[in-house]
Design brief:
8-stranded parallel beta barrel, 617 residues, 4-stranded antiparallel β-sheet, alpha/beta, 22 strands, globular
């Protein structure tokens, strides 16, 4: 297969020889120029390997489509020696034409095939960013948005089955985890700090986000490489109790999930995260599947007109029996963001809470957190007062006991009231569950406090006063549980947009939040910082009420291709809150010499030069 290359041949000459479709090896080029000699791999794959690489779909597909000024970032970084092996599809055309469903792409009416150009540019690289304008189709109208669509294969895909048989899962903490004072510890009493991220989608479309463009295994590997150790999976009661067949397009990059149901998708996600040593927290986000949260979405309680409290308990029993015994499932969040339930129309669904409104006392009902501003005929959960049907604490105790009866080793997460802000009532009336099993949950967002210039939280005018005011506010709501060693508190949501540094109030908030979560004045400073999960992983909206599927999810960590962070500054801010340090890989090259072989179809390739581009490892 090989042709001996004369030592005197220059790198440009070598590249030209390869372009003429001779098989060659670039052993004489300097390391800093090896990344330019990728045509070795490109030509061989083009001649002999593309059909064989297509058979790697058991490992999943890698797809991405971007338009406008967005950058399409191809990446193959699952292994240290991974790289882009082939380009299965690449087209530039009008975004309004054709279909971009992964693996079933249809060419736009106006556009052009750019497979060869992208193959020459990207094959052999670990990461390859592409700009739409560099591949713009001249046949397209200037008045329409240009879209670039690419599907590629990684060498790790070819090795997926062999690797799965040999690779041991990454280490998980020794279970069972338990609450000990203000922290969570493993079976040997060592602290386990949660520094995680929410992987959503299941609560909106009954399927995990990102499975339309990337294999579940690749997403799990990326989460681990970014330094997270904990993943919060959000789901709806609808997804569990109805277990609908998922839309094929939403799992298109995972062919093994085509035609499968919602619980099968959760199975695949949990298994992929387990292989990467990532802990899982199962969170009941909604009753009906949809975007969360406001007082008019009909999901403020653990029941509504379509799902009873008994249905909700049944849901948790199904989840516990199916996932409670998995090595990486460490706990559950019983009810996301308890909030008002208001009568009225919400999208295609109508809700009538008049009976509950009257049960709560109507307009004379207590209003400790100013909830009446939500509108007329709204009823809200009370911690432990008023009618039992509306008591949040009582409902959480019932669900928690049902779960622990099936699996006594799980941690049980109980949220604070009013969108998971307030745990003031716990001091006098804690949840009646085993103390070592109980974790409280809160959320923290900038819009819950006035960070405008001149306010109580203005760092520019009075840094010390702003930090003290912020610390007092959080301590009063929930931080006292940590400072007094009463119970652990998981901050299961916080987040900010990709442009957060340009928004003065958000910048002020994040500085204060960082000081509280990780700084010396924080409630767990001596223990390394608070437990948290960032909202959220996906950088693309999944749809839902007043949401637009496919648009930028401004709080999301990842880019459109699910290959890297959307914004480096955004991710580095999150990383500064205690993520495991990962070194940034310098641009370098690895020469695989000797008889090392990569099997493409029935052909073995000897002496492959693979360029490695900067990436998170």
């Amino acid at each position: 297969l090989a042709q001996v290359v004369q030592p005197a041949m220059s790198c440009p000459a070598l590249a030209m020889a390869c372009r003429k479709q001779s098989f060659c090896a670039a052993m004489m080029c300097s390391a800093n120029r090896l990344r330019l000699a990728l045509v070795v791999l490109a030509v061989f794959a083009h001649r002999h390997g593309e059909a064989a690489l297509a058979n790697a779909t058991l490992a999943g597909l890698h797809c991405c489509s971007v338009s406008g000024e967005n950058v399409l970032v191809m990446a193959c970084e699952d292994d240290p020696d991974d790289s882009i092996a082939g380009i299965s599809y690449a087209f530039s055309g009008n975004s309004s034409d054709g279909s971009a469903v992964c693996g079933r792409e249809i060419d736009a009416v106006r556009g052009m095939n750019v497979q060869e150009a992208i193959r020459n540019k990207c094959v052999g690289l670990r990461r390859c960013p592409l700009k739409v304008k560099d591949f713009a189709a001249e046949s397209c109208s200037n008045s329409t948005t240009q879209e670039l669509r690419v599907r590629w294969t990684c060498f790790s895909d070819v090795r997926q089955q062999e690797r799965a048989q040999k690779q041991l899962p990454h280490r998980l903490p020794d279970k069972p985890l338990r609450a000990q004072g203000s922290v969570i510890v493993d079976a040997f009493g060592e602290r386990v700090r949660f520094t995680g991220v929410t992987w959503g989608g299941l609560h909106i479309n009954n399927v995990l986000s990102g499975l339309d463009v990337a294999p579940a295994s690749s997403i799990a590997k990326l989460i681990r490489r970014l330094g997270f150790n904990f993943v919060r999976l959000t789901f709806s009661a609808e997804a569990v109790l109805q277990n609908p067949v998922v839309e094929d397009r939403r799992v298109a990059a995972n062919p093994q999930l085509l035609g499968r149901r919602a619980l099968d998708v959760i199975d695949a996600g949990v298994a992929a995260l387990e292989q990467e040593g990532l802990m899982v927290w199962l969170d009941n986000h909604m009753l009906e599947s949809g975007w969360c949260c406001d007082g008019h979405d009909g999901n403020g309680f653990w029941f509504n007109e379509r799902y009873t409290a008994e249905h909700w308990i049944q849901m948790w029993q199904i989840v516990t029996q199916r996932y409670g015994g998995r090595p990486n499932v460490v706990g559950v969040g019983l009810k996301n963001e308890p909030r008002p339930a208001c009568s009225g129309q919400h999208g295609s669904l109508a809700y009538n809470f008049s009976e509950l409104f009257e049960l709560a006392g109507g307009n004379d009902a207590p209003d400790p957190h100013g909830m009446k501003s939500q509108g007329s005929e709204c009823v809200w959960p009370q911690w432990s007062s008023g009618p039992q049907k509306l008591q949040f604490k009582l409902a959480m105790e019932r669900a928690g006991k049902a779960i622990l009866n099936l699996n006594p080793d799980l941690l049980i997460g109980v949220s604070g009231l009013h969108y998971s802000q307030f745990l003031n009532d716990v001091a006098e009336n804690p949840v009646d569950l085993p103390r070592e099993r109980l974790v409280y949950e809160v959320h923290e967002y900038y819009w819950w406090r006035d960070h405008a210039p001149g306010g109580n939280f203005d760092l520019d005018i009075d840094p010390e006063g702003a930090l003290n005011n912020y610390t007092m506010a959080l301590d009063e709501n929930w931080g006292y549980l940590l400072r007094n060693g009463i119970a652990p508190v998981l901050v299961s949501e916080f987040g900010m947009s990709h442009t957060w540094t340009k928004e003065a109030n958000v910048l002020q908030w994040f500085k204060l939040w960082g000081a509280y979560a990780q700084g010396e004045q924080g409630p767990l400073a001596v223990h390394g910082g608070v437990d948290w999960a960032y909202w959220q992983l996906s950088g693309v909206q999944e749809g839902g009420f007043r949401r637009h599927e496919g648009q930028e999810e401004s709080f999301g960590v990842l880019n459109r291709c699910w290959t890297a962070p959307w914004n480096d500054d955004h991710f580095e801010a999150i990383q500064g809150l205690g993520l495991t340090t990962r070194r940034r890989m310098d641009e370098t090259a690895v020469f695989l010499s000797g008889v090392g072989s990569l099997f493409l179809s029935r052909f073995a390739m000897v002496g492959v030069v693979v360029s490695l581009h900067a990436g998170w490892v």
